[in-house]
């Protein structure tokens, strides 16, 4: 599933305050995924919960702001000092990343009209990179993290994707989607979409 679809749901959820509406938006998304490609439920549920692995693995995601500022700057061709200054002004690094990505796309569209479109990021790809970042340790880990975060931002086809990539890496989506709501949404999706329709092909562990 394109990561942009999940980000649109995040945007819709962030725009409302009613818990019932949030639950409805998320349940609808899960039902659509369940019908189209049930295997995508796995990465979507993790990303919506701001987790990258089961709790028993004790893997936590929380990338430092300095790493994210560097990655945003390098990915968008912006001086990191400017990224940091903008962050101090508005207080949301996700929105900062979205802003600079939007400017980059506007300039890119003006000067490079013939460039072939990029393949969209998928939710599974984003989760995979998030998990690798969370598990990477050692002397060269910061450099590796900057490079791989930069690749995600560059590959993002929508500025909104950049916003939630950065927020996700910080470990705080800030959209009002509680883990309990994620679980209720999953329960409702499974109840409203019969299992025979939900998953005619049971995915193997390798596919998950």
TrEMBL record:
UniProt keyword annotations, A-Z: DNA damage, DNA recombination, DNA repair, Ligase
One of the GO biological process terms: lagging strand elongation
GO MF entry, a single one: DNA binding
InterPro entries cross-referenced by the UniProt entry: ATP-dep_DNA_ligase, DNA_ligase_ATP-dep_N, DNA_ligase_N_sf
DNA ligase ATP-dependent N-terminal domain ranges (all copies): 2-187
Gene Ontology CC terms: mitochondrion; nucleus
Family in the record: Belongs to the ATP-dependent DNA ligase family.
Protein name from the UniProt record: DNA ligase ATP-dependent N-terminal domain-containing protein
Organism from which the protein derives: Phaeodactylum tricornutum (Diatom)
Upper lineage: Eukaryota, Sar, Stramenopiles, Ochrophyta, Bacillariophyta
